[in-house]
Design a protein that fits this description.
Layout: H1 7-14, H2 20-48, H3 54-75, H4 80-85, E1 87-91, H5 99-108, H6 125-128, E2 132-136
Antiparallel strand pairs: 1-2
Helix pairs in contact: 2-3, 3-5
């Protein structure tokens, strides 16, 4: 009797995890993009006189960070860093992220020292906690 090929094995072989180096470059580029956005919003808010409170400033910074990652990953699966390194964020099943997945990943990035989870040798916390991963984007 001939054994049927396992289609899931074929599918899983098409997903290749992003390297640690790519993830690090993603982080550096995205931090730069984040600070550029903060700078632009800071100038706009400062010029309008709306930036009067440190609490408001911190809320705006958190909103920019959440918005940057949520919108970019939720719509395209890629941030600017991922675009340059040809990687993308997907679910563990290889499906594109939706806005909910992207928002949850973004919230996880607010955990103190979350960026250091990259040194643990496995998935970063924002990947592990949201059942997502960053893979090579062959397109």
């Amino acid at each position: 009797m001939e054994q049927q090929p396992d289609l899931l094995d074929d599918f899983s072989n098409t997903l290749e995890y992003a390297s640690t180096g790519q993830r690090f470059i993603n982080y550096i580029i995205d931090v730069i993009a984040f600070y550029v956005l903060i700078f632009i919003f800071g100038i706009l808010l400062g010029a309008t006189g709306l930036l009067q409170s440190a609490v408001l400033l911190y809320l705006i910074i958190f909103a920019i960070m959440l918005g940057y990652y949520t919108v970019m990953e939720g719509i395209t699966g890629k941030t600017f860093g991922k675009m340059l390194t040809k990687t993308k964020a997907v679910t563990l099943h290889g499906e594109p992220l939706n806005l909910k997945n992207a928002f949850l990943r973004s919230l996880c990035r607010l955990v103190p020292f979350e960026a250091f989870s990259a040194f643990g040798g496995g998935q970063m916390w924002h990947d592990k906690w949201t059942d997502t991963m960053v893979v090579q984007n062959k397109n």
